[in-house]
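From: lab user (bench 3)
To: helpdesk
Subject: output format question, protein + D-glutamic acid

Hello, I'm new to running complex predictions and I'm not sure whether the block I got back is the full result or only part of it. Here's what I submitted:
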Amino acid sequence: MLNLDLILAERRRDTGMNLIDLPIAVLDSGVGGISVLRELVRVMPNEHFLYFGDSKNAPYGEKTPEEVLHITRENLKALLARGIKALVLACNTATGSAARTLRAEYPELILIGIEPALKPASLLGDRPRVLVMATPLTLRQEKFCALMGRFSETSEILPLPCAGLVELIEDGKLCGEELDAYLKNLLSPHQNTKIDAVVLGCTHYPHVKDQIAKHLPHGAVILDGGEGTARETRRRLLEADLLRTEGEGHVEILNSSNDESRIALSQMLLNR
Ligand code: DGL
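Helpdesk reply: Thanks, we reran it on our side. This is the complete output you should expect:
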């Protein structure tokens, strides 16, 4: 186990930076977490962000929980060595597989995860029917089963694993025939049914929200956890006296893939 205080103290000595000025790290299996980063920047415009997209290892959602924990732990170690003041795990799959263990391993670290937005969905009317789109691993995890248990009294929850959708988004296929055919095949069984809410339980999916909407029954509300995660991050930093409230914030984007186009895609998605 690494000593976080020691790492941060060394980092501060190297850079002459105050802890409050260190970046907030945002981690995902690729370009998905940019949908969360967008909300983070909106809610905390004075903060610095270090985004790490692990496209080399995507998709996490088709790996085992042990593999995702191992990869996430290694990525966190690399981010800590650069100097960060908090970690936003902008990935539902990694939150389910790794957040609890990493919180125990780094008790001093402010670690914020993301989970499918079942809570706001369950409030949409009288026993709403809620479709939950997520990776196969997220929907198999104990964390999601517990969440589903909490809300299935008040809502009818329909989990929908979306194997293959992350790959299309990672390849930049954000519209067009291939994506459309995929979504039609996935969502046509639900198109003529009553669906009150659709939860985007993977941070990649908000990037194709308009395309998803075209294949849903009229009136279905689409929700994701990006804004809630950004607000929770702000609350945690404020509580720890680590919220930057003045000065210009900046964003640095890194990616584990050698393919330069991932960085360009991330920038494009951030500015969209
Ligand atoms: N964006 C991630 C999530 O929220 C996972 C994507 C993947 O399968 O790599 O679950």
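A quick orientation on your result: The longest strand covers residues 129-134. Let us know if anything else is unclear.
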